[in-house]
Automatic annotation (TrEMBL):
It comes from Undibacterium arcticum. InterPro entries: MetalloPept_cat_dom_sf, MtfA_fam, MtfA_N. This is Zinc-dependent peptidase. It holds the Pfam family Peptidase_M90. It comes from the Bacteria.
Length: 274
């Protein structure tokens, strides 16, 4: 009898371990969206006001899940505020609309610096010569459950984010595109696409567009896609994502096949949010 009781208690305990996180998440998502959160979105993610009501509701729920599951850490004396949390969560969750997602499941921490942060780099040249340098970065996505962002650059791009217009870069969209890219198992410019046929279509379009951007970068030709994307396929996917959300009309006109591939992946058409 004692053994049976202990077994039942153990099973109950295991059940609670699985049930409690799910219950807490459901409770967090079900809470009313705070009014000041909506004000932050209208101010710092202005595209929110141009979305249809169903997408606005989706975005709010995704933000609540993001804020419930991810820990924000202020670095170099930065105090984390609701403005920082909601702004970053709002932009990151733009990439998840209309898609079945666990909301960046491998991501646990968002480290936020007041401005550009220094990352040490080491390069090993032929012959074993090691060169060390310090790079000043505005954002970085790491494979060990972290994204790092410079808040002043996040804020600077807030005013720029206007779908369909010629605007600047967005470090949040860029770094969270890298997070999506890594969900396939490697960060190589091909996110998780679910089927072989979709990977084949993706590869055909992206290889051609990547080669075109490399050519444009070599000749310093004007491009709606940032030349930084010519660095490697992973960076190409990240800057193409920025262009898709920030320069949707121009991208659709100048690179229709690339726009169509991104629209199929992201399940939205930002040109409609005008």
């Amino acid at each position: 009898m004692t053994f049976i009781l202990l077994t039942m208690l153990l099973m109950l305990g295991i059940g609670l371990l699985f049930w409690l996180p799910k219950f807490r998440l459901q409770r967090a998502i079900a809470r009313p969206f705070p009014r000041h959160y909506a004000q932050i979105l209208r101010m710092n993610v202005p595209v929110f006001t141009k979305m249809p009501a169903d997408l606005q509701l989706q975005l709010k729920r995704l933000i609540q899940q993001f804020l419930h599951q991810k820990k924000f850490v202020g670095c170099d004396g930065l105090t984390i505020t609701d403005e920082i949390r909601v702004t970053i969560a709002g932009k990151a969750c733009l990439l998840l609309l209309n898609r079945a997602t666990r909301v960046y499941p491998d991501l646990a921490f968002i480290l936020v610096y007041p401005s550009a942060f220094i990352v040490p780099r080491s390069e090993v040249a032929a012959g074993g010569l090691v060169t060390r340098r310090n790079d000043a970065l505005l954002g970085e996505s790491w494979s060990d459950d972290r994204v790092i962002l410079a808040w002043d650059h996040v804020k600077r791009s807030n005013a720029d984010l206007g779908v369909g217009h010629e605007v600047g870069h967005d470090v949040v969209l860029h770094e969270f595109a890298h997070q999506l890219d890594s969900e396939s198992g490697s960060t190589n410019g091909a996110p998780y696409l679910m089927s072989r046929a979709r990977y084949e279509r993706w590869s055909a379009v992206f290889l051609q567009e990547f080669a075109l951007l490399q050519e444009a970068a070599r000749h310093q030709s004007v491009s709606v896609i940032d030349h930084y994307g010519a660095t490697n396929p992973a960076e190409f996917f990240a800057v193409a994502t920025e262009a898709f959300f920030e320069k949707s009309v121009a991208l659709g006109q100048e690179h229709p096949a690339l726009f169509a591939a991104l629209r199929e992946y992201y399940c939205v058409d930002p040109r409609e949010w005008q």
